[in-house]
Known about the structure:
Elements: H1 3-6, H2 8-25, H3 29-38, E1 41-44, E2 55-58, E3 64-69, H4 78-91, E4 95-98, H5 105-115, E5 120-122, H6 124-134, H7 144-157, E6 161-164, H8 170-176, H9 188-200, H10 205-208, H11 210-220, E7 223-226, H12 241-259, E8 264-267, H13 277-287, E9 293-296, H14 308-321, E10 326-328, H15 341-361, H16 365-379, H17 383-389, H18 393-399, H19 417-421
Parallel strand pairs: 3-4, 3-10, 4-5, 5-6, 6-7, 7-8, 8-9, 9-10
Antiparallel strand pairs: 1-2
Helix pairs in contact: 4-15, 6-7, 7-11, 8-12, 14-15, 15-16, 16-17, 17-18
Amino acid sequence: xxxxxxxxxxxxxxxxxxxxxxxxxxxxxxxxxxxxxxxxxxxxxxxxxxxxxxxxxxxxxxxxxxxxxxxxxxxxxxxxxxxxxxxxxxxxxxxxxxxxxxxxxxxxxxxxxxxxxxxxxxxxxxxxxxxxxxxxxxxxxxxxxxxxxxxxxxxxxxxxxxxxxxxxxxxxxxxxxxxxxxxxxxxxxxxxxxxxxxxxxxxxxxxxxxxxxxxxxxxxxxxxxxxxxxxxxxxxxxxxxxxxxxxxxxxxxxxxxxxxxxxxxxxxxxxxxxxxxxxxxxxxxxxxxxxxxxxxxxxxxxxxxxxxxxxxxxxxxxxxxxxxxxxxxxxxxxxxxxxxxxxxxxxxxxxxxxxxxxxxxxxxxxxxxxxxxxxxxxxxxxxxxxxxxxxxxxxxxxxxxxxxxxxxxxxxxxxxxxxxxxxxx
Length: 425
């Protein structure tokens, strides 16, 4: 059965947004519909999210960028998170995830949904873990019914996509914790579920209750971002049995979701050495039947603490070239602390640079046209044109002040190579 026909909420939001999607993505209506039905495209947009700008993730749509924000037990201020949300929008993010783990999580989520047109993602498990700790229980002390209720509540509130670690099995957790990995499990959601399975002796409740999750998500067109709870947290762990055990499970779950009329994305690797990025991306895409791939970085070195947005952008550019569809940004604060507004801005721009580089390598017309526009503007020393072609036009305008009306750039002055090479008049 067609995913669109089986999902009335998806059909509704697709019908309303098709003209804008066709123009932005340079795709026909038939192509968009057929690729959504195949599962290679996912449309983010919950009709309950009143202001949402429906956004396509997957081949051959534009590579998109996500920004993670949210509170933590160490820093919890709603005003700060609202500022970060606005910065992410201004910097050009295509979606945002609220990863809050402290404070009034319902209030934070509802305020973000009311404030932004960007599709909003969440990790419902975080809210359940917070509820457990506030009631004096272990973070992994929840009942499956509590987790399902949280997913249903957030879907009703208007959340557009959710990270659900449905592919993390008891076997996978045991593989990751057997001592063969240098860094074990680094995903918060993965660690909570591994702890739950170890305490209860039962299989992952997100897996055993998968059909119930599909029903909730279909009702609201919540795209399931099938989480990578066993992603490598160190380059040396990339491609180990635990990672691939989960990936293979995610491929099976993707097919089950499509059969139920539910859209999915696949979350990809974290830390991957440069020479393994191509194999990882292409391997995951193949194992998950071409589903949209949402990658964190990947980080090509573990040693860039304080500048992990650079390590992630290098990996992200390669990932985009080899088939990744959705780049989750990293900020300079990654692995160190909660990002501030400046970190958010730098993270979004780093991932947008990665997307531009990857799409240029693929020969995507819009990316090539942007490169050509910058080239032409530089040839003419057209400062306004350079700003328009740049991914961060405000920075170009700021740094070129005082030279933008001159006949040479502010670096070379009278030694401008372009001017020197011109025929003398």
